Amino acid sequence: MSKKLINCDLGECLTPNPDAGAMLLIDMANIACGGHAGDDESMVKTIKLAKQNNVKIGVHPSYEDQANFGRVSYQLNDDELYDLVYQQVSHFQKLCHNNSVSLEYVKPHGALYHDMMEKPLVLDVICRVIKAVDENLKLVVQAGVKNFG
Length: 149
Hints:
Layout: E1 7-10, H1 20-23, E2 28-32, H2 40-52, E3 56-60, H3 78-98, E4 103-106, H4 110-118, H5 120-134, E5 138-139
Parallel strand pairs: 1-2, 2-3, 3-4, 4-5
Helix pairs in contact: 3-5, 4-5
């Protein structure tokens, strides 16, 4: 039996140190990268906290939708969606590099995550972004999904 890993969405709060306690309980941190929440300061702070706690670091891209916390689906063409996700993932990758940590995976947030699970074209765009940024990045999807991809 394979080990189950616990992941948690982090870097989404404006209050000081809300993620410190969660880091003790998880294996993987899905860190908000500006679309639905987060900014450079919160990203770096959460990256450093994950590093201190030996937690795997993942980027948590989303639609540009801070007003609705990334819960609203947007109808973007392939180029617009690619640019949106690429900007978030590649910028986050640079922040990880600048802090001497590895970005391990991508786990889209909210509506983007659900669109990826339901719309093959959205999945294709996200996979192309992963390949362009770092083909060794993993993509986190729902457990138990059969015939995915």
